[in-house]
Write a structure and sequence with these properties.
By secondary structure, the chain is of the alpha/beta class. About 35% of the residues lie in helices and about 15% in strands. It has six helices and five strands, in the order E-H-E-H-E-H-E-H-E-H-H. The chain has a five-stranded parallel beta sheet, sandwiched between helices. The two termini are about 20 Å apart.
């Protein structure tokens, strides 16, 4: 269970903007599996304007940096780890999630992702469980030396059939992954 007085904070990113998305439901289940001493909060990404380098250019007076960029970057910077739950869109990560990755990667030399432990769960209504989205996301995040869990990876296929309550074996599998993620955060905190 999450503990609101916890000292280890996880920023949770949900790669779907739909309020009742499967990704959000899975994220909330995973958040509830964190051990004592960990606290997780969803960091919303739907309101972030598309990344534009002019926003980070101090000479670009015509393009002031959006406050939402600073709030997002501060939320990631202050977290001890990042946990991402994403669907697969057209064999890739959703545009909103890629935009968040890009915003967190700038300005050059100030990426908020650097060395942050990350856990990734992908899902799809198809049988492959978001395999392509997870592989693309891992590739994008690998640039930032983010410690990631290897095997077993979590690809939740036919996620629409798994919810609202995960089957026992799936919940146990996800729970073991969340525990491994928590240990990774503790190791790097």
């Amino acid at each position: 269970m999450t503990d609101t007085t916890a000292s280890l904070k996880t920023a949770v990113l949900v790669g779907s903007l739909r309020r009742d998305s499967n990704a959000r439901k899975i994220a909330k289940i995973a958040m509830g599996m964190l051990p004592a001493g960990h606290h997780a909060e969803i960091v919303e990404i739907g309101h972030l304007p598309l990344y534009n380098a002019d926003f980070d250019d101090p000479d670009a007076h015509w393009a002031p940096r959006p406050d939402s960029y600073e709030h997002f970057r501060d939320a990631i910077r202050s977290a001890h780890g990042v946990f991402i739950v994403t669907p697969e869109n057209n064999r890739c990560i959703p545009a909103c999630l890629k935009n968040a990755v890009d915003i967190g990667s700038k300005p050059t030399g100030e990426a908020v992702w650097m060395n942050k432990p990350v856990g990734i769960v992908s899902h799809s209504v198809g049988r492959m469980g978001g395999y392509s989205s997870q592989k693309n996301l891992r590739l994008a995040l690998s640039y930032f030396d983010m410690p990631m869990l290897g095997q077993p990876e979590v690809f939740l296929g036919q996620s629409d059939r798994l919810l609202p309550d995960l089957p026992h074996d799936t919940a146990e599998f996800l729970g073991r992954y969340v525990q491994r993620y928590a240990t990774l955060v503790e190791k790097h905190a």
